[in-house]
């Protein structure tokens, strides 16, 4: 992802965090959330928001695992878990076995307007909002 585009993504997500944090079901993170993005060339970028470094570290670890799993499999994190446990493919297919996978939502492949792909992990809110904040930010950027 180009440096300017990544900067826009980080700024847009940062502007959306207060909205998601205001939901009582997502307030447990107290504004401590993390994003990890891997591009098609394997370049890893990200950010940790919030004041609690230990909580941020944990959320970034989850975001990294989500993003790297998506990068390897090409599937959303929850989707990969369902397919693996439904025996739609063998554990060895992607090299991520049942004890090592992350099934929580929040990891997703994103195809940008220009056709390039990002493999994104976000952590700190409930899974559906980990997904939503990223897709909303990308939509805002691409429609401006």
Name the features.
144 residues, Beta-Lactamase, four-stranded antiparallel beta sheet, 4 helices, 17% strand, PduO/GlcC-like_sf, Heme-binding protein
Describe this structure in words.
This protein has 144 residues and is of the alpha+beta class. It has a single domain, classed as 2-Layer Sandwich (Beta-Lactamase), CATH 3.30.450.150. Helices cover 45% and strands 17% of the residues. The chain contains four helices and four strands; from the N terminus they run αββααββα. It has a four-stranded antiparallel sheet with strand order 2-1-4-3. Helix 1 crosses helix 4. The longest helix has 21 residues. The mean pLDDT is 94.
Radius of gyration: 15 Å
The span between the termini is 17 Å
* Total of DSSP H or I helical runs spanning 4+ residues: 4
CATH homologous superfamily classification = Haem-degrading domain
Q: Domain count, please report it.
A: 1
Tally of extended strands? 4
Q: Helical proportion?
A: 40-55%
**Kindly state the mean pLDDT as a whole number?**
94
Write the H/E string, N to C: HEEHHEEH
The proportion of residues in beta strands is 15-25%
CATH arch. level architecture: 2-Layer Sandwich
Q: Which term fits the overall shape?
A: globular
Which quaternary structure do these chains form? single chain
Under CATH, the topology is which?
A: Beta-Lactamase
């Amino acid at each position: 992802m180009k440096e300017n585009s990544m900067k826009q993504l980080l700024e847009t997500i940062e502007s959306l965090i207060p909205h998601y944090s205001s939901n009582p079901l997502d307030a447990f993170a107290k504004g401590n959330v993390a994003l990890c993005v891997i591009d098609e060339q394997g370049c890893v970028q990200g950010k940790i928001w919030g004041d609690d470094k230990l909580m941020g570290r944990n959320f970034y670890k989850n975001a990294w695992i989500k993003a790297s799993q998506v990068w390897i499999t090409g599937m959303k994190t929850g989707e990969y878990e369902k397919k693996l446990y439904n025996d739609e493919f063998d554990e060895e297919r992607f090299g991520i076995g049942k004890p090592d996978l992350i099934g929580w939502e929040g990891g997703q492949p994103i195809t940008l307007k220009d056709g390039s792909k990002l493999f994104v992990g976000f952590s700190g809110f409930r899974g559906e909002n980990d997904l939503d904040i990223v897709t909303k930010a990308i939509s805002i950027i691409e429609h401006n």
